């Protein structure tokens, strides 16, 4: 049994390394918000390590990253969203601009997603 486990570990370690695409860190992110009640949308910029409000939500941007030399295509940002101050976040994770439904904010009234990174 130990020999079998050892063989599996060696096989995993001997496999090809997963290539990671080089990324750059933007100065911030362009986000879009939707008020589902009023059907109102608005775009807003946030700098890395800053916070802002969307209706009654507090949105914190940790960092926005993008593939080297291409800030528009597959940008992704780490967001934390709080419904109330001092309460556990209702969303905390990476949001991908090209696939916002991959890891969406789930809120009955507001929707927030990443459009792109800001490079300047």
Helix and strand string, N-terminal first? HEEEEEEEE
User: How many individual helices?
Assistant: 1
Q: Can you tell me the number of structural domains?
A: 1
**Segments where pLDDT lies below 50 for 5+ residues?**
2-18
Number of strands: 8
Helix content: 10-25%
Strand content: over 45%
Rounded radius of gyration (Å): 19 Å
Largest sheet: 5 strands, antiparallel
What structural class do you assign from the helix and strand content?
mainly beta
Describe the protein in words.
This protein is mainly beta and 120 residues long. It has one domain. It has one helix and eight strands; from the N terminus they run H-E-E-E-E-E-E-E-E. It has one helix at residues 2-14, and strands spanning 23-25, 28-35, 40-47, 50-54, 57-67, 76-82, 91-96, 110-118. The strands form two sheets. Strands 1, 4, 5, 6 and 7 form a five-stranded antiparallel beta sheet that branches. A three-stranded antiparallel beta sheet has the order 3-2-8, with no helix packed on it. A hairpin with an 8-residue loop joins strand 5 (57-67) and strand 6. The longest helix is centred in the first third of the chain and has 13 residues, at 2-14. It is globular. Residues 2-18 have low confidence and may be disordered.
